[in-house]
C-alpha cells in the first residue's frame, strides 16, 4: 500500500526527501556531508515534535482514520494469544465487521470483540467498512454472555464510523440491538474493558462500549456524531468539519478531562500507524493492567462502581 501522507505532515515529508537527496548526493560523489546530515536529522525530529505535540482535534481524527493504522484483528493476533474466532449471532447471520472470540491476555483467558475495517476496497466491502449490522451486535451480546457464564473478562476494541444505516439493518432492528447491548453491558457480571483504537462513532461504538474501564488510544476519537455529520447539520457544509471536531470535544484528552473515559493509552510519535509494534505493546499492557485491577474487586462492588461511573457522566456543578 502506498503511504498516505496527511496534509499537516507535508513539512516532515519534504525535509525527509531533502535528507534522502543529500545522502544520495554524498554517496554518489564520495563527499562527506555528515555534519549537514546530522543537522537535517535534528531539524526533522524538531519538526515532528512541534507538529505532533500540537495536533488539532481534526488532525487527530485524520490519524484515527489512517488506513495503515493497526485494526482490531492486528491487536487480536499480536496483543492477545491463541485467538479463536466464533461466528454468527444464532439468529440471522455472521457479521464480518464484528469479529470476536476467546483469547488469552498476559496469561489470563478472556473474551474479545472488536470492529474490523479493511485496508483495500475488496476487504472493506467484505468488512462493510467497519460498520456492523444488527447481527454483529447480537453476536457481541452472545459473546458477552459467554464471558459472564465462564467468568472471563470481556474486552471490546472499538473502531467504527457508526453502525450500518442501511434499510436491511433498520428492518432487522439495529437500534434495538444496540439498546439491548447497552442494558446488558451495564449489568454484565464480569469485568469489562473497552478501548477506542481508532474511530468511535455514535451508537455503533457505544454498542460495545459500556464497560468498567473505557480507554482510548491517544489519537483516536469518540463522538456522538462524525465531524462531517455535525458540520452538515450546523453549517450546512462538510468543509466546516475541523470547526465541528474542535467543538465536539472528541479527543482522548478532552474526554478524559470531562470524565467520559478512564485513561489514555500513549501512541508512538506520529500515530500508531508509524510503529505497529509499539502501539500493540502499549495496548496489551494497558488492557492487561486494567483487567488485573478489575478482577480483584468483589463482583457486587464492580457492578456498583460501573453504575456510579456512568451516572456521573454529564453531571456538572455550577457556581452557587
List the helices and strands and how they pair.
Layout: H1 10-28, H2 34-52, H3 57-64, H4 72-78, E1 81-85, E2 100-105, E3 108-114, H5 121-126, H6 134-149, E4 154-160, H7 167-171, H8 174-186, E5 192-201, H9 202-206, E6 213-217, E7 221-223, H10 227-234, H11 241-248, H12 252-258, E8 263-265, H13 276-295, H14 299-312
Parallel strand pairs: 3-4, 4-5, 5-6, 5-7, 6-8
Antiparallel strand pairs: 1-2, 2-3
Helix pairs in contact: 1-2, 3-11, 6-8, 10-11
Mean pLDDT across the residues is 92
Topology pattern, helix = H, strand = E: HHHHEEEHHEHHEHEEHHHEHH
**Strand content of the residues, in percent?**
5-15%
Radius of gyration: 21 Å
Q: In this structure, how is the largest beta sheet organized?
A: 8 strands, mixed
Please report the distance between the alpha carbons of the first and last residues: 57 Å
Question: Segments where pLDDT lies below 50 for 5+ residues?
Answer: none
Q: In DSSP terms, counting alpha (H) and pi (I) runs of 4 or more, how many helices?
A: 14
Name of the level-1 CATH class of the largest domain: Alpha Beta
CATH architecture of the largest domain: Alpha-Beta Complex
- CATH topology descriptor of the largest domain: 2-enoyl-CoA Hydratase, Chain A, domain 1
Helix/strand-derived category reads alpha/beta
Provide the CATH superfamily of the largest domain.
2-enoyl-CoA Hydratase, Chain A, domain 1
- The best one-word shape is globular
- Indicate the percent of residues in helices: 40-55%
How many structural domains?
2
Total number of beta strands: 8
Amino acid at each position: 500500500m502506498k503511504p498516505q501522507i496527511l496534509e499537516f505532515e507535508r513539512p516532515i515529508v519534504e525535509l525527509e526527501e531533502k535528507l534522502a537527496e543529500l545522502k544520495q548526493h554524498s554517496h554518489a560523489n564520495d563527499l562527506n556531508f555528515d555534519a549537514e546530515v546530522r543537522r537535517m536529522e535534528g531539524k526533522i525530529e524538531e519538526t515532528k515534535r512541534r507538529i505532533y505535540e500540537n495536533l488539532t482535534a481534526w488532525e487527530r481524527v485524520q490519524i484515527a482514520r489512517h488506513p495503515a493504522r493497526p485494526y482490531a484483528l492486528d491487536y487480536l493476533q499480536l496483543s492477545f494469544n491463541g485467538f479463536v474466532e466464533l461466528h454468527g449471532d444464532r439468529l440471522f447471520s455472521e457479521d464480518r465487521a464484528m469479529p470476536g472470540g476467546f483469547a488469552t491476555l498476559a496469561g489470563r483467558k478472556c473474551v474479545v470483540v472488536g470492529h474490523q475495517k479493511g485496508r483495500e476496497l475488496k476487504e472493506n466491502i467484505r468488512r462493510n467498512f467497519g460498520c456492523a449490522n444488527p447481527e454483529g451486535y447480537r453476536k457481541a451480546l452472545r459473546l458477552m454472555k459467554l464471558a459472564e457464564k465462564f467468568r472471563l473478562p470481556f474486552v471490546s476494541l472499538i473502531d467504527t464510523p457508526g453502525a450500518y444505516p442501511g434499510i436491511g439493518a433498520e428492518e432487522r432492528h439495529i437500534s434495538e440491538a444496540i439498546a439491548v447491548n447497552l442494558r446488558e453491558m451495564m449489568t454484565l457480571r464480569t469485568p469489562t474493558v473497552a478501548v477506542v483504537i481508532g474511530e468511535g462513532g455514535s451508537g455503533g461504538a457505544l454498542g460495545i462500549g459500556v464497560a468498567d474501564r473505557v480507554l482510548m488510544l491517544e489519537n483516536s476519537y469518540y463522538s456522538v456524531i462524525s465531524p462531517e455529520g455535525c458540520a452538515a447539520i450546523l453549517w450546512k457544509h462538510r468543509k466546516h468539519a475541523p470547526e465541528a471536531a474542535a467543538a465536539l470535544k472528541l479527543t482522548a484528552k478532552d474526554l478524559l478531562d470531562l470524565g467520559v473515559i478512564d485513561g489514555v493509552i500513549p501512541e508512538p510519535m506520529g500515530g500508531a500507524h508509524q510503529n505497529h509494534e509499539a502501539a500493540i505493546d502499549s495496548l496489551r499492557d494497558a488492557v492487561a493492567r486494567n483487567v488485573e485491577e478489575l478482577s480483584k474487586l468483589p463482583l457486587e462492588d464492580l457492578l456498583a462502581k460501573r453504575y456510579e461511573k456512568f451516572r456521573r457522566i454529564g453531571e456538572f456543578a455550577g457556581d452557587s
